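Data card: per-record layout.
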Amino acid sequence: MKFKQLVCLPFLLLLFLTACQNHDYSPKPRAYYRINYPEKKYQVFEGIAPYSFKYPVYSKIESYKGSDAGNYWYNLHFPQFNGFIHITYYDVNGKNEYNKLVEYARELAFKHTIKASAIDQRLINYPNHKVYGIYYAIEGNTASSVQFFLTDSAKHYFRGSLYFNERPQYDSIAPVINFIKKDIDTLISTFRWKN
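The structure for this 195-residue chain is written out next.
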């Protein structure tokens, strides 16, 4: 019996050592959480603000409470996605103030140039409703992925910026950004100034 053990033990040890020589290791890709998107349904925001628009039923509008808050400033929260659209409004008093606000919107969008891989601009033009502006789509690991402003070119100025309460990782939040972009497009296309 001892002889069989002496012969079998080295043979098993040799078999074990040669069986573990696989160098074809490849790392597994990262997995991401499955995201269940809600059905697209919209409701109208009117309130006391000098504007109205449609926004998704799965979001919440809350008054912005920051120390720099102005009249009719809101956050449109998307609790399921841990993100929000920060909304600001200004009453425009003259052409100089209007030009400063438009330039400020451009500066804020292009501040992301350091981390952005691309910044695309699109004109917003709904002359029947006197809604004009620029839409900035910002790609890359930036704090804000979408920024836009709307104006009547005379006395109203409305600005929105999409943010997430997470560290920016564009690859992982890109599907959510694309989902919310459709909501932003609806907000813009249904936007109206009140007289």
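Known properties of this structure: The radius of gyration is 27 Å. The longest strand covers residues 116-126.

See the next section for split statistics.
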